[in-house]
UniProtKB/TrEMBL annotation:
This is Aconitate hydratase. Its cofactor is [4Fe-4S] cluster. It comes from Frigoriglobus tundricola. Residues 77-582 form the Aconitase/3-isopropylmalate dehydratase large subunit alpha/beta/alpha domain. Signal peptide: none annotated. Catalyzes the isomerization of citrate to isocitrate via cis-aconitate. Keywords: 4Fe-4S, Iron, Iron-sulfur, Lyase, Metal-binding.
Length: 926
């Protein structure tokens, strides 16, 4: 295999009678002694550069040297090219990726090139986990009914994915009903050490089209979430351009105290790191606390790297890693290679491993972690369980804002009573056995959703078993869940059901209506399904602030359910506890959770599981055999999967009548060479937004309302409302998705005036300037496009935080937005904007729309774009001049920082995005 091998690092490692080629870090450390103290994650990157030097034109000897000389306190300025070993996808983001690949094949043919060049060059694994919704719940038929509805809604998407699996090389699909991609990755897909076709062994690395790809960092595997756009480029052989990051060390010591769970730990870590500020940085965990920290707990912490804002949250490989690989059924040959490889490279952590040098450090004594929750709207807003009652009371006045139905704007904030979210049945318990809820049962603080959901926690046996033990104790005391609570159990893999069954806990969970509803993300991503009609009616009639309690990783406003304003993250046993209590405003120390059959008060402490009880169940119920048996059939799928009628051929036959899959417009006018870039002038503001605008606010998600722009489009194309499905399922159709961009029911656009009573209008509305008429954002965007007016989005801090949703950038582009101007960005969304050819600008530190007196009614000119591109936005060229002309003709001018961060991104922008760039590169290659 050709390589530059400037450091003479190529060597041989023999394990189990086999010889592997490796690239030794010691070769660099001999020349650069400081490289010995590099953080673990940077050593993985160093090996990546060593191995790819000369193989990729993007990797030079100077890049290896730059990383070896890393100075922890320096601001990132040096660009390197990271070449991941593989790509992981879930189906919401995976479908548009495959759509784009199919469209690129068509475009390649149109350019006169070879369509077969459009093919994944690294292994790509897509796990279908985002499409199952909680329609049926609380019954034995919940799983079967939800799966049947999933296939009914997604037949066309799944058929398309199966076509892709046949049409493209290196592309595997894990069928529905198997598990959540990150848990399947952790338990099965991750190699830890990758061996290519040339016999070269190297660390398993990846990028994934979901921000929680970082979960596998708990296994010592370096990877993170990227937008689908960037992932497609990686699939097609493009290295990921990045700046050598700063690395924050997080030292762990001690052990968790009785009563504390891994969820409590991760919420504490998330709060600490958000306060520290680690956006764009790596976080690496070290210290004596690692010795007693199970790998499942590490994965829980690593999973929530997006919530604390880091690119990754990684743990080193050690004896616990090896134990986990053995337990989860990895081949003995691989386990032996992993241990030998990491020891040979000096990457195996033990008590004698010296601490690395970090940019900065934090420290946490695990013994000080207390039971906690996070909410009501952000994962970093941790609340000690003991303070929950008062915390909810303090949050209630703000949550009450906006509960009134709109009067100035006709679009409803939530699905009408009885209207299914996503087109499923309207009631709970499948609507067939709707719960008996007496009028007046609900009040502010009532829990209406209690969901054991998300790979964050369902991958962790300690908290899942704890939920089962608590349920068992509750059933023994005669307790039951409140009838207005929509309960669900959605494991991240079938292994969870196996060990809950083997441990004798599944029956008690079922008795409390925590029946398995599906193997997928469900409530964590907003696939919570409709509330019972009676519950929806009480919420609407009373203007109530009701709550969801979920074991997920995100609780942003409008995400979990449009009728639920207070959303709290909690451990699985607490989810069960709150379902029993039926309300969040409970003081667990003084108020009983209920009464037993003898009328005695039952306190939470009476049924809370001990560490010993949990450990006993884990020891007898989790086996290597279960992992081998369940993952031995991982690609088979059920009868419905096998029965799909799959087309053949290298080019996809697009259907003009499909409302799920459509050939996107990105390449229709594309030439062999890119058009010249021009200055952006005469732009209007489409939306003036505040802080913490997430990709949930931007990207279409959740239910499609019949009177929304997307709903009207579907009705016009013969789709009945009951068949609308949800936005996530229609990500392969740009006409639907662009109509749902910026249509979130909780979006607050400051261009829209308040109602007559002073309440804030929420939803996807704006003004078509210079007039005062309030219209949908989509309608305004189309009117501006007709008039040739470029558009701007103005935002505050942390713009684009949340899931790595490529449609947050794709939809922005298709609406005609040329510039986003914000105070700060989350990493993935900024990259996605550049990847779609949208210019991300950033207010200078301390400046904002408010500081410049901007109202959004101005006309904007952006000066210096062409000159900046010529100089790769280096030095003074990094700042562009923004001139805003007010309605009265006066102007305000200021400098803004261009956030096209690397020379490679400059090339993407010049080409109109990353995909046109890759397509032109492949077309030009001989």
């Amino acid at each position: 295999m050709p390589t530059g091998n400037s450091f003479d690092s190529r060597s041989t490692l023999s394990v189990g009678g086999k010889a592997y080629t490796i690239y030794k870090l010691a070769a660099v450390e001999r020349e650069f002694s400081q490289a010995k103290r590099l953080p673990y994650a940077l050593k993985i990157l160093l090996e990546n550069l060593l191995r790819n030097e000369g193989v990729s034109l993007a990797v030079r000897k100077a890049d290896v040297e730059a990383l070896a000389r890393w100075q922890p306190k320096d601001e990132p300025t040096v660009e390197i090219a990271f070449t991941p070993a593989r790509v992981l996808m879930q189906d919401f983001t995976g479908v548009p990726c495959v759509v784009d690949l199919a469209a690129m094949r068509d475009a390649m043919k149109s350019l006169g090139g070879d369509p077969s060049k459009i093919n994944p060059l690294v292994p790509v694994e897509l796990v279908i986990d985002h499409s199952v919704q909680v329609d049926e719940y609380g019954t034995a038929r919940a799983f079967a009914d939800n799966v049947a509805l999933e296939y009914e809604r997604n037949d066309e998407r799944y058929t398309f994915l199966r076509w892709g699996q046949k049409a493209f090389n290196n592309f595997q699909v894990v069928p529905p009903g198997t598990g959540i991609c990150h848990q399947v990755n952790l338990e099965y897909l991750a190699r830890s050490v990758f061996v290519d076709g040339h016999g070269t062994a190297y660390p398993d690395t990846l990028v994934g089209t979901d921000s929680h790809t970082t979960m596998v960092n708990g296994l010592g595997v370096l990877g993170w979430g990227v937008g689908g756009i960037e992932a497609e480029a990686a699939m097609l052989g493009q290295p990921v351009s990045m700046l050598i990051p700063q690395v924050i060390g997080f030292k762990l010591s001690g052990r968790l105290a009785a009563g504390a769970t891994a969820t409590d730990l991760v919420l504490t870590v998330t709060q600490m790191l958000r306060k520290k500020g680690v956006v764009g940085k790596f976080v690496e965990f070290f210290g004596p606390g690692l010795a007693d920290l199970p790998l499942a707990d590490r994965a829980t912490i690593a999973n929530m790297a997006p919530e604390y804002g880091a690119t990754c949250g990684i743990f080193p490989v050690d004896a616990e890693t090896v134990r986990y690989l053995e337990q989860t059924g990895r081949p003995a040959e691989l386990v032996a290679l992993v241990e030998a490889y990491y020891k040979e490279q000096g990457l195996f952590h033990d008590a004698n491993t010296p601490d690395a040098v970090y940019t900065d450090t934090l420290e946490l004594d695990l013994a000080k972690v207390v039971p906690s929750m996070a909410g009501p709207a952000r994962p970093q807003d941790r609340v000690a369980l003991a303070d929950m009652k008062q915390a909810f009371a303090d949050a209630l006045p703000k949550l009450k804002t906006g509960t009134k139905k709109p009067t100035a704007v006709p679009l409803p904030l939530a699905a009408p009573v009885g209207e299914a979210i996503g087109g499923g049945p309207a009631g709970a318990f499948g609507a067939k056995t709707a719960p008996d809820i007496a009028p007046g049962s609900l009040a502010d603080g009532s829990v209406v959703i209690a969901a054991i959901t998300s790979c964050t926690n369902t991958s962790n046996p300690s908290v899942m078993v704890a939920a089962g033990v608590l349920a068992q104790k509750a059933v023994a005391r005669g307790l039951s869940t409140k009838p207005w609570v929509k309960t669900s159990l959605a494991p991240g893999s079938q292994v969870v059901t196996d060990y809950l069954t083997a441990g004798g806990l599944i029956d008690d969970l079922n008795k409390l209506h925590f029946n398995v509803v599906g193997y997928g993300c469900t409530t964590c991503i907003g696939n919570s399904g409709p509330l019972p009609e009676a519950v929806s009616k009480e919420i609407a009639d009373g203007g109530l602030v009701v709550s969801a309690v979920l074991s997920g990783n995100r609780n942003f406003e409008g995400r979990v359910h449009p009728e639920v304003r207070a959303n709290y993250l909690a451990s699985p046993p607490l989810v069960v506890a709150y379902a029993l209590a039926g309300r969040v405003d409970i003081d667990w120390a003084t108020e009983p959770i209920g009464t037993d059959a003898d009328g005695r008060a039952v306190m939470l402490a009476d049924i809370w599981p001990t560490h010993e009880e949990v450990a006993a169940v884990i020891d007898r119920s989790i086996t290597r055999e279960a992992f081998e048996r369940i993952y031995g059939r991982v690609y088979e799928g059920d009868a419905q999967w096998k029965a799909l009628q799959v087309p053949t051929g290298a080019l996809y036959s697009w259907s003009a009548t499909s409302t799920y899959i459509a050939n996107p417009p990105y390449f229709r006018t594309m030439g062999v060479v890119p058009s010249a870039v021009h200055e952006i002038e005469g732009a209007r503001v489409l939306a003036l937004l505040g802080d913490s605008i997430t990709t949930d606010h931007i990207s279409p998600a959740g239910n499609i309302k019949k009177d929304s722009a997307a709903g009207k489009y579907l009705l016009e194309h013969g789709v009945a409302q009951k068949d609308f499905n949800q936005y996530g399922a229609r990500r392969g159709h740009h006409e639907v998705m662009m109509r749902g961009t910026f249509a979130n029911v909780r979006l607050r656009n400051r261009l829209v005036p308040p109602r007559e009573d002073g309440s804030v209008v929420e939803g996807g509305f704006t003004r078509h300037l210079p007039g005062d008429e309030v219209v949908s954002i989509f309608d305004a965007a189309m009117a501006y496009q007709k008039d040739g007016v470029p558009l701007v989005i103005i935002g505050g801090k942390e713009y684009g935080s949340g899931s790595s949703r490529d449609w947050a950038a794709k939809g922005t582009l298709l609406l005609g937005v040329k510039v986003v101007l914000a105070e700060s960005y989350e990493r993935i969304h900024r990259s996605n904007l550049v990847g779609m050819g949208v210019l991300p600008l950033q207010f200078k530190t301390g400046e904002s729309a408010a500081s410049h007196g901007l109202t959004g009614e101005e006309v904007y000119d952006f000066g210096g774009l062409v000159a900046g591109l010529e100089k790769n936005f280096d030095g003074p060229a990094r700042e562009l001049t923004v001139t805003a002309t007010r309605p009265d003709g006066t102007t305000v001018a200021f400098k803004a920082v261009c956030r096209i961060d690397t020379p490679q991104e400059v090339q993407y922008y010049k080409n109109g995005g990353i995909l046109p760039y890759v397509l032109r590169q492949l077309n030009a290659a001989k």
